[in-house]
Specification:
By secondary structure, the chain is mainly α. The protein has a domain of 108 residues. 58% of the residues lie in helices and 2% in strands. The protein has seven helices and two strands, in the order H-H-H-H-H-H-H-E-E. Helix 3 packs across helix 6 and helix 4 crosses helix 6. It is extended, with a radius of gyration of 24 Å. The N and C termini lie far apart (53 Å).
Length: 180
């Protein structure tokens, strides 16, 4: 046997030995993740779904929770937030839970929390994160991109000034996209 043939044989043998492991790891990446939550408890996730549905309710498009935004937020908060931020979110949700569930004017309550958060109230800072990630999660979802925006599959030129009115959707050529 020549050296080249030995190397070819060795490479083929190695490939055949490793091939099942490579295929198995590839296929395991295609499985659906477990339906359990990563960060929120079941009760907190239910409250989060209700909160984000007030922020982005179902209109001509799906609501925030119908597009899976609550699951996006759960994953981001579990994987990307510092422990101090996670504690802030948990405390904030806990502090507003009873008021939110008992409130008949949920929009008014969230407007009040929003105003306090943006005025610098440290107890309401958590709401800024919830609101930001609700918008990011929804507008990067399939529903948010294709139905709530003027979806442009192949972006072209930039148009800085476009005519708009109350019925204008998020315009595809000028829209910012967040990919996490």
């Amino acid at each position: 046997m020549h050296r080249r043939e030995v190397l070819e044989f060795g490479m083929m043998a190695t490939t055949h030995v490793l091939f099942p492991g490579i295929i198995a790891s590839f296929i395991s990446g295609c499985e659906k993740p477990e339906s359990g939550t990563l960060f929120f408890t079941t009760g907190e996730l239910t409250l989060l779904k209700d909160l984000i549905d007030v922020i982005l309710p179902a209109t001509g498009t799906a609501s925030a929770s119908q597009s899976g935004t609550h699951l996006f937020i759960d994953q981001v908060f579990a994987k990307c937030l510092e422990p101090e931020q996670q504690a802030l979110i948990r405390e904030g949700l806990g502090s507003v839970k009873k008021r939110f569930e008992a409130s008949k004017d949920k929009i008014g309550l969230l407007n009040e929390i929003d105003e306090k958060a943006y005025r610098g109230d440290k107890e309401m800072r958590w709401f800024i994160l919830i609101k930001q990630y609700t918008l990011i999660g929804f507008f990067t979802s399939k529903e948010g991109t294709t139905q709530a925006s003027n979806y442009v599959p192949i972006p072209g030129e930039y148009k800085g000034e476009i005519p708009s009115n109350d019925q204008t959707l998020n315009y595809g050529l000028t829209a910012l996209r967040y990919y996490l």
